[in-house]
Each structure stands twice: as structure tokens, then as C-alpha cells.
Amino acid sequence: MGCGTGGGCDGCAVSEKRGCGTSSVFNWLAKVDDSKSNNYSDLVEVQFKKNRKGYFQNTDNITISEGDFVAVEGTSGHDIGKITLIGEIVNHQLKRKKINTTKDPLKKIYRLAKENDIVKFEQAIDLEDPTLKKAKLIINTHKLEMKLVDVEYQGDKSKAIFYYTAEKRVDFRELIKEFSRTFGIRIEMRQIGVRQEAAMVGGIGSCGRELCCSTWMTDFPAVSTSSARYQQLSINPQKISGQCGKLKCCLNFELDSYLDSLKYFPKPKQVVKTKKGEAKQIKIDVFKKKLWYVYKSKDPGIFELSLKQVLQIIEDNKNGKSPSSLEELIEEKEIKKVDFKNVVGQDNINRFDKKSKKKKSKNKNFKKRNRNNKRSDKTQNEK
Asked: Is 36 in contact with 88 (CB distance < 8 Å)?
């Protein structure tokens, strides 16, 4: 399962700082009782900072569970990470990511993280932000064409990975020497792409949700403008580009559904023939199964036809037949008059006007009575 299924994960300060659970994981083989799961019980997936993960072997049969923090073998020294998966599901992950364990044997898990290890791990995390700021200043003094994105310390504070992006090849040999002198650690420079940069930085997408690349996506497949064209989207860079500046990864999510539906639609260049003239396709709606046509002779009018009608015209054209015009094929649509009803329970909007009229009439009657009373008083006085 994901975060919180094992011990030592729920609400811990370390997981809050390091971005615990940024890559959500679901162990769909957790409750499956299978003999194979015993064969791979020593395989473990460990998550480090954000979405970086590594695969290790529990050769010493240490009692561990998902969510535990463990000390694992590093390139030199040890690192601290959180267990996300154990067992057969890890073997599936290795196959999916095409990791050859015979050529590159898996490193081992040393032990469950002790209190001492966690303290040192927290100190390493606290060093990352100030190191990043200093490193950026050093890069500016060297005037190198590269952008430093993030710094990740190893759990024992003996090594740091500097993630950067660059359009061209960068000679940073002198930079590494100065980093080593300034920070007193071993340095590893790792170049990443703009998509990986967006995943590290994070943010909110145009959909209003957190970026897919910084939550659940681990692989970044290529996205082309044809994905947008198949979905009838406008090729507007501002609308179809993500925060990384590349085409949005979500353009691929529904592409297969569109491609399956488009099999039943005529090709965009397919012309339909009528006695009035030929018509070309300008737009389609895959889900409503509607197509829009205009005459090639530039006669005015845009004609909405159903997929069934268009396929029938194409079939008739093959047999040498054609309808007289597109106008006769348009289905008459009943325009429903919307009756606005008072659902709020308010009175008529003209209620104030009516009241004012009543007041006016009351005033007029009152004035008439006064006049009549005065006249009657005068007549009595004369008598």
C-alpha cells in the first residue's frame, strides 16, 4: 500500500519535510495468497526524496514492513529511505522498468533506521536548502549556462546529488572542485530534463489539481502535436503546454479512446458529393458522432450531419448516387422554449411598483375625502 500502512510513517516530521507519498503507490498483490510471493519476499522498493526510488534486497531477512525507514547500501556509505513495496509486486516493477538484476545486482538493506540515523537524516535534509542557495551563487560566478534545480543529501551526509538542466554540454570540472571545497562532501552532478524539473518543483495544473508528474507519474512518454490533432484541439502552445514548457502529458491519457472512435469516421480529406456540388469536412465531434461540412464552391452555410448520414452519402457516392443537397439532409430541430420559473420562492419583481400604485391611489382617496370634508364644513358654516 502507500503511505501509512506500515509503522513509522503516519504524521512523522521527516516524511513531511522530504515529501513522503508524493508518488502514490498501490500494492494490488497485497492480499493475494500466492506461492510466488514467497519467492520474492526479499525484494524491497525504497522511496527517497520526492519520486526517486531504488530497489534493494533483504538478504539478512530483517523483519520489515511497508512504511518503515531503513538504512540501505549507497554508492559509498549508506542512505536512509522509506519502504513502499515488498515482495512479488517489486519483481513486477523491476520487469516494467527493465532493470537487469544479473548485470547490476541489487544493493542490500543494512538495518531498520535507528534513532541516531533519523537524527542524522533530518540534519541532512535541513542542509539541502542552504546548500542549493550557495551552489546557485557559485554557478553565477563561474558564468555557466546551466540551471540548478535541486540538491539531495545522502542519509549519512557524506554525499550530495546536484540536479541540473542545461541545453548544451557544460564543463563543470572546476565547479565540482569548488563545491567539494565549500561543502566538504562528495559531489555527484546529475542532468535531468524539463519534465523531471517540473516534477521536482511541483505546482498546480490548469485542471486545478496537483501536477501528475509530481504525484503519480514515474515515466514521461513522448507527446506529439498529433495527439492534440486527433482530439480536435487547437494547436495553441499556451493551452496545450504544461509548466515544463513541453506538451502536456495528459494529451496521451485519452488518445486511445479517440483513436478507437475515429476508426468509424471518414477521413478528413474525404469529400461528399451532392447534385448541388462537393462538400468538405471542417469539424467533427467524436462523442456526439456529428460532422460539419461546407460546400467547396463557397456557397454560404455550415451543415451539421450525423455520422450515419455521412456514411450513407459516401456509400451512395460509390454506387453513383448522390443527394440533391445537404440542406435536405439537415434534421429539423425543435427549439424548446425555456420557461423561467420562480424556484427561489420570491415574489414578482414588479411587486414594489404595484405597492407604490396602491399607495398613490390611497393618497388620492385621502385627498378627495379631505376636500369633501372641507366642502361640507363650509356649507354648514354658511347655514
From this structure: yes
DSSP assignment string, 241-279: B-TTSSBPGGGGTTHHHHHHHHTTSPPTTPPEE-SS-EE
> Residues 6 or more apart from 117 whose CB is under 8 A from it?
69, 71, 80, 155
Mean per-residue pLDDT, 19-35: 58
Tell me the domains of the chain and their CATH numbers.
13-113 (no CATH), 121-197 (3.30.300), 272-329 (no CATH)
Q: Give the confidence band of 96 by pLDDT, cuts at 50, 70, 90.
A: confident
Give the C-alpha separation, 80 to 181, whole Å.
Answer: 25
Residue 83: which pLDDT band, with cuts at 50, 70 and 90? Answer: very high
The residue among 297, 296, 307, 305 whose CA lies nearest residue 327 is 305
- CA-angle at 288, arms to 225 and 221, nearest 5°: 25
* All three cell numbers of 367: 385627498
Whole-angstrom Cα distance, residue 57 to residue 106? 6
| Cβ atoms 212, 183 nearer than 8 A | no
* Cα–Cα distance for residue pair 138/136, rounded to 1 Å: 5
pLDDT tens for residues 124-137? 999 999 999 999 99
- pTM for this structure? 0.66
Residue 88: Cβ-neighbour burial (10 angstroms; 0-12, 13-18, 19+):
buried
Residue 348's pLDDT is: 60
Look-up: residue for cell 450513407?
Answer: 312
- What are the grid coordinates assigned to 274, written together? 451532392
Q: Is 289 left (phi over 0), alpha (psi -120 to 50) or beta?
A: left
Task: Round to whole Å and give the CA distance between 1 and 76.
Answer: 30
**Whole-angstrom distance, CA of residue 99 vs CA of residue 168:** 29
Block residue for cell numbers 565540482: 176
Strands (E), 50-130: 53-57, 69-73, 78-86, 107-112
